[in-house]
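Morning!

As promised:
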Amino acid sequence: NLSNKTDSTIGVLVPTISNPFFSEFLQLLENYSDAHTHILMVGLDGDRSQLYSAIEGLIGQNVDGLIIAVAIQENSQVTNLLKENRTPYIVLDQNSSKNSDFIASDDFHGGEIVAHYLYSLGHRRFSVVVPDKNAMTANLALRLQGFTETCRDLGIQTTQIQIVKTAFTKHGGQRAVPNILAFKPSAIFTLSDELAIGVLGGLFNAGEQVPRDYSLVGYDDTDYAEFTNPKLTTVRQPVELIAKYVLEMLKNRIADPQIDWQVMAVDVELIVRDSVREI
Ligand code: RIB
């Protein structure tokens, strides 16, 4: 129990540790947890088929609570496992959650603000780089939906939007570039900074310049965004707040499993740097 200062262990499950968003998140959890709280981390390395066994493994380590940053709400095997074991847990990176504590980052709004921003600078033809089926989760689908629905409301025809599916990694971003070049958008929106970094590298290799030839917007505002050339315009998820809330809320749940479901909404915002130009 966290409240009476005996040692406790919290299991954390993320889709991958190498994505900077998740490595920052894990680091912050370490920073924010006190000396009596041990953090046990598991990354799925992008392979969601390992979800069940990873959670089973963490429960087997007698964790006092779990932080789950992988969409589980459609996986009844996993939700049943958690229920049967009565393990306190909190989820993030889902589009909703009825039966657990939940941190809700406004993914739909994230997509929406990118569409408005690009439109306001004259962009009318877009490539959106999204994860393939293997890594596509409900929260990422909401980001895409926020973008495409806003474009539709702004009068942009669906033929002006190319959706490029690729691995949810830097390499995936780089491999998406030939498809993007063939479509010739004026702006590219990637659903993570990691993808944006891959796209940036691929464009550079192809002799294309950002933002002269293509504008580019990422998502997350990881600390890499300030170190790319040009600096990346991106949607910021407040990862410090998310890490802080997630620990607090899990602590409350462990202290009193009977309290009502806690839901915390966090806002996203556009961070304008140098990777988009007006056309
Ligand atoms: O970069 C990783 C992304 O996947 C983040 O945006 C996070 O929210 C997750 O869903």
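The radius of gyration is 20 Å.

Hope this helps with the figure draft.
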